[in-house]
Amino acid sequence: MKNPVLAPSVLSADLGKLAEQVKAAETGGADWLHVDIMDGQFVPPITFGANMVAALRKISTLPLDVHLMVKDPERFVAAYADAGASVFTFHPEATVHSQRLLASIRARGMKAGFALNPGSPLTLAEELLDDIDLLLIMSVNPGFGGQDYIASATEKLKRARALLTARKSAAVLEVDGGISGKTITTAWQAGAEAFAIGSAVFGAKDISGEVKELRRRCSDKV
């Protein structure tokens, strides 16, 4: 199995100490930074925009894993590409032509991510695997940080891993929601390789130490 990719989510960061906390996550060995974009329509909250991605690009060289929980995400491909996003992930329920959007994301030099809510079937991704660089399995209903991991996500991760393996897909399998020291091992053993982690990292007293501990828990020895 590949090495785990740890992507602390800045949704849970103290924005008044953003640069400091991002640096601490980097020191602990974070691989990506996860950025949750919400528009108040596809999900209730309103969070960040492309300006946050641009600000993060100024203070970090880590890949920026941008997760758009917005209606009509195709409207924002250019803006996030220009801001420095590395991965542009969207939900199929938010757009009409998913394949066209996946292609346009790649055309702008970003990795194309495809997100499935807890109630969204894996079959939504099957016909599009050749166009997907990252498959994101939501282990909470999107919209709010700090939620508990939904246990049924484990079986869905196993099925997603089996599908990717059967199709010889190189897409990264990511999980987002309720990931902590108590759940990351379960998700890792189910086949996830990338982890969006919010409050467990940025809510910790020792951010660097928590990132290291989360990586340790992605081990057969745990």
Strand fraction equals 15-25%
Task: Count the domains.
Answer: 1
Number of strands: 8
- The CATH topology is TIM Barrel
Overall, the morphology is globular
**SSE string, helix = H, strand = E?**
EHEHEHEHEHEHEHEHH
- Contiguous helical run count: 9
Instruction: Give unreliable regions as ranges.
Output: none
CATH class equals: Alpha Beta
Q: By helix and strand content, what is the structural category?
A: alpha/beta
Provide the residue-averaged pLDDT: 95
Give the termini distance in whole angstroms: 15 Å
- Helix content, binned percent: 25-40%
Structural account:
By secondary structure, this protein is of the alpha/beta class. It has one domain (5-217): TIM Barrel, CATH 3.20.20.70. It is 35% helix and 18% strand. The chain is built from 9 helices and 8 strands. Strands 1-8-7-6-5-4-3-2 form an 8-stranded parallel beta sheet. β4, α4 and β5 (111-116) form a beta-alpha-beta unit. α1 packs parallel to α9. The longest helix has 14 residues, at 153-166. It is globular. It starts with a strand and ends in a 5-residue tail after the last helix.
Helices and strands in order, then pairings?
Elements (H helix, E strand, L loop, with lengths): L4 E4 L9 H11 L4 E6 L11 H10 L4 E6 L7 H7 L3 E4 L7 H10 L3 E6 L6 H4 L7 E5 L14 H14 L5 E5 L7 H7 L3 E4 L1 H4 L4 H11 L5
Parallel strand pairs: 1-8, 2-3, 3-4, 4-5, 5-6, 6-7, 7-8
Helix pairs in contact: 1-9, 2-3
